[in-house]
Amino acid sequence: MSVLPRHRRQHDGRSALASLGDAAAAVRFASVGDLALERGGVLPDVVLAYETWGTLNADASNAVLIHHALTGSSHVARGDTDVPGWWDALVGPGCPLDTDELFVVSINMIGGCYGSTGPSSIAPDGRPWGSRFPLITLRDAAHAERRLTESLGIDAFALVIGGSMGGARALEWAVTHPDAVRHCAVLAIGAASTAEQIAWAQPQVLAIRNDPHFADGNYYGGHTPDAGLGIARRIAHITYRSEAELGARFGRSAQPGEDPLSGTNASRGRYAVESYLDHKATSLAGRFDANSYIVLSDALMSHDVARGRGTLEQALAGVRAEVLVAAVTSDRLYLPEQSFELAAALPGDVPVHLVDAAIGHDGFLTEMGQLGALLDAHVFGR
Amino acid sequence: MSVLPRHRRQHDGRSALASLGDAAAAVRFASVGDLALERGGVLPDVVLAYETWGTLNADASNAVLIHHALTGSSHVARGDTDVPGWWDALVGPGCPLDTDELFVVSINMIGGCYGSTGPSSIAPDGRPWGSRFPLITLRDAAHAERRLTESLGIDAFALVIGGSMGGARALEWAVTHPDAVRHCAVLAIGAASTAEQIAWAQPQVLAIRNDPHFADGNYYGGHTPDAGLGIARRIAHITYRSEAELGARFGRSAQPGEDPLSGTNASRGRYAVESYLDHKATSLAGRFDANSYIVLSDALMSHDVARGRGTLEQALAGVRAEVLVAAVTSDRLYLPEQSFELAAALPGDVPVHLVDAAIGHDGFLTEMGQLGALLDAHVFGR
């Protein structure tokens, strides 16, 4: 395990890391060696990209690990950069995760495209992994990440936290490394990916695979399958929001200057909600690698904290962390009832905290006030 | 307006009509002439495919018009064929729509691929319409269909009925042709397509357009965009079912003989729910034309019975039919609350009947017992 110079970025083709812009300067890289995978095989010479905020105290008791969701990055907070992070209001000096007191770590998950070893990384044969990148589970990620955090001098985290896939990663940490997690916050996700969630992931992945530029995943150096990735993002984004939110924002309005009933089906103008989804699609395709989208989707679909560990109750019996479980009231993808099932199976009497929001699943990204209050009350006892 | 010989099938490439198999023998064709479209332009020489069951009585008072949904056909019931229809239990001798007493008509919507003029039909220049097929609204369809039903000697229907897009077609009939509809049954749809429904349609259409074989819609005679159409169907099918239904049927089970965590992302086995969706995709791609899917999706997204008619209440003020409004309790695509909005805006005191089913939107296709009971009680007074 060695910390690498910042210039080591094993990427070919479009570097998603570059889309971090000035924030990329905050990213560090560490080699964690060869990684034996849960389902067999070894991923050689794994590099993890990560960011930190604040200072680790003398007894290394103030460390917090934040896990990003499916298309997130390690850039949780702006820190010394000018680029806002995806939980900017939650992480910083004076914030609920107060970087004047805490040492916050966030790691880009293996398989991703923000600097950690993933399908766009260079394989030992000098070519990008592409379609040859192995199937990764959240458990694989937890093992690789532990090596990194130990190298940072952290034996145990005061808190491991995440929402959506980040929540699944946090939960997997609490089960896989019970002695390394004192508090665990599992937001907007249950104990395992469900048939519904697996179903929604499938057309997303297939839309990427069916893109004319996908080239069986070996598109680096050529055109990228942006249209397919954009379709995946549209599907996902709708599931991340609520019917009520889309209705209130867009209704049946036409995009200004366009007429959805003009011309032919191929040339007609757009409804406002279509323009909105176009924007979401373009935005993701401009910053994310399609192969990473597939690898991380499959990893998320593998989420089943009880796999190979008996019943769910048996699997969770060894958890030593105090677990904070929270769900978004209007979440239609990761249903609150799944958070209740998780809480009921955890040792002790674990309540479910409901984040009251109309937006849907994305409430775990938008409701910083409520999340901060939950952390204040139930983790930091403020 | 003339009834055409049955052999007139204006199709090139794969004939979806052929996928009706023996049922195709029951399909008749009628030319309804040039159709001036709601949004301008003329669709020349429109042919409508239709089926009938039973016999029109002397005063033509026993006619029922059944409208199919997005990918449906005129084959509502088996009739004299060996091929079950999509509402077989509802239509036939002794059924709630009793063909010993009623004369039942069902018409393939323009834009479709089951015999009516659509994008796979031959345009005046001798080539398939393909991408040149104009944008069609449900109002256009109602005008074309009225010409056909008048030619059959039907001035007014005892009942016009449909579910999902079929319900939208029925409602549009009751508003566009108020004197021609005595009862109208509007199942599992509201007064207009919502932002949510428009949002879901978009990635479906884009998945077809982005298929390598789509060729801008001019794929007839070559490979058809089956993969894209299959992706569209997967998205749609999930929205047609409920989370609970998918969960109860499939959970996280692997497809027998396959391992979702084996191999690479490209080669892994499937979850059972993925295999199920694959089957739904293959099935539709084997029987439906991708351009028709786009044309009819856009027609359904155009659904807004109040367009150009003032407020919804004003638009519905002229309805003379007794309207039966029903919604499926677990429908997450066409929400029951949208049926309540429609009912509240209709003249008089119109209740909403709830079809109690866990399956989701598709309850309008599966809950024949409840639908039959509603028709018995509220249309036929049995």
Automatic annotation (TrEMBL), chains A, B:
Main location (coarse class): cytoplasm
UniProt domain AB hydrolase-1: residue ranges: 62-365
Catalytic residues (positions): 164, 331, 361
Pathway of action: Amino-acid biosynthesis; L-methionine biosynthesis via de novo pathway; O-acetyl-L-homoserine from L-homoserine: step 1/1
Pfam families hit by this protein: Abhydrolase_1 (PF00561)
Enzyme class: transferase
Keyword match Transcription regulation: no
EC number(s) from the headed UniProt entry: 2.3.1.31
Catalysed reactions, as listed in the record: L-homoserine + acetyl-CoA = O-acetyl-L-homoserine + CoA
Keywords linked to the UniProt accession: Acyltransferase, Amino-acid biosynthesis, Cytoplasm, Methionine biosynthesis, Transferase
Compartment list: Cytoplasm
Residues involved in substrate binding: 233, 362
Family annotation (Gene3D superfamilies): 1.10.1740.110, alpha/beta hydrolase (3.40.50.1820)
Keyword hit for Acetylation: no
Subunit-level organization: Homodimer.
Job description of the protein: Transfers an acetyl group from acetyl-CoA to L-homoserine, forming acetyl-L-homoserine.
Family label: Belongs to the AB hydrolase superfamily. MetX family.
Protein name per Swiss-Prot or TrEMBL: Homoserine O-acetyltransferase
Organism expressing this protein natively: Tersicoccus solisilvae
